[in-house]
Each structure stands twice: as C-alpha cells, then as structure tokens.
Design a protein that fits this description.
Number of helices: 2
Structural class: alpha+beta
Family: Belongs to the PTH2 family.
Protein name: peptidyl-tRNA hydrolase
Pfam families: PTH2
CATH class: Alpha Beta
InterPro entries: Pep_tRNA_hydro_II_dom_sf (IPR023476), PTH2 (IPR002833)
Largest sheet: 2 strands, antiparallel
Strand order of the largest sheet: 1-2
CATH architecture: 3-Layer(aba) Sandwich
Strand content: 15-25%
Distance between the termini: 23 Å
Keywords: Hydrolase
Number of strands: 2
Number of domains: 1
Length: 53
C-alpha cells in the first residue's frame, strides 16, 4: 500500500501532485504527496519512518 493510501485510511487529508512533464520528469509522474493537517500522532504513524532531508 502506498503512503497516500495509508494516510487516507488514517483519516488524513491527502493531495498527490502529478508532474506536468515540462522538465525532465515524465508527464503524469507522481512527484509530491501532501499529508495533513491532522493530529501529530496520526501523521507520525503514517510518516514517522521517513527520513528528513
């Protein structure tokens, strides 16, 4: 299951952004997922394993 589906299952607001293909990224490629707002503990359940860059 992907991250956006896990967030939706947890009841969080989710927005997936697909690239328009105007640069080197192929059109339709999913490049960003926005999760929240929501309770910190719920967001951490979904995203806590991700590295911060």
């Amino acid at each position: 299951m992907d991250l956006s589906a896990l967030a939706r299952e947890a009841g969080l607001t989710v927005s997936v952004i697909q690239d328009a293909g105007r640069t080197q990224i192929a059109p339709g490629s999913r490049t960003v997922v926005g999760i929240g707002p929501g309770p910190i503990d719920v967001i951490d359940q979904v995203t806590g394993h991700l590295k911060l860059y």
